[in-house]
Amino acid sequence: MTxxxxxxxxxxxxxxxxxxxxxxxxxIQSVLPIMRKQKSGTIVNISSGLGxxxxxxxxxxxxxxxxxxxxxxxxxxxxxPFGIRTILIEPGLIKTNFFKSAVxxxxxxxxxxxxxxxxxxxxxxxxxxxKNAANPEYVAKIVLDAIMDKKPKLRYLAGKDVEQIMxxxxxxxxxxxxxxxxxx
Length: 184
Prior knowledge:
The protein is mainly alpha-helical. 54% of the residues lie in helices and 10% in strands.
C-alpha cells in the first residue's frame, strides 16, 4: 500500500495489516504448539528495512513492518525457553515484481490530491533505486545462512542499500537521519 497517510482510507490500511501482521500472527500461532511440543523450531519472519525506518508515502507498509519487528522481538523472549529461535530478515530493495504489484491509495491517484507531486516523484525515484537493487537469491542466501547459524542473531539486513541506510541511522542523530532521508 503506497500513499500519503492523509490519502489512505482506513480500510486500505487494514488490508495492509491483514496481510503483513495478522496473517503472520495466525501462521505463527498455528505452528507454535507443534514447535513447543518438539522443543525446537525456527521462525523466520520477513520484515523490511522499512520496519526500522519510515519513508514518505509508505506509512501503512512501514508501520506494518514495524509491527512485525515488535512482534518478532517480543516473541523471541517468550519462545527461547522452549528451544524455538526467532529470526528477522530485513530486505532492502529487491529486484522483484513487488513495486509493479504495489497498490496505490485511491485518493493518492486523484489529480487534486495534495500529495500528487510526492507520488510522481516517488515513482521516478523508485525506478532509479531499483537499478541497484539486490537479486532475490541474495535474500534467499541470507535466510539460509541465518537458519544454519548455530548462534543466529535476531536481525539480518539483506541488501547493500539497507545496510548503508542502517549504518547511517546508527551513526546519526534522529534529526540528521531525517534530513538524509528527505534527500533520497
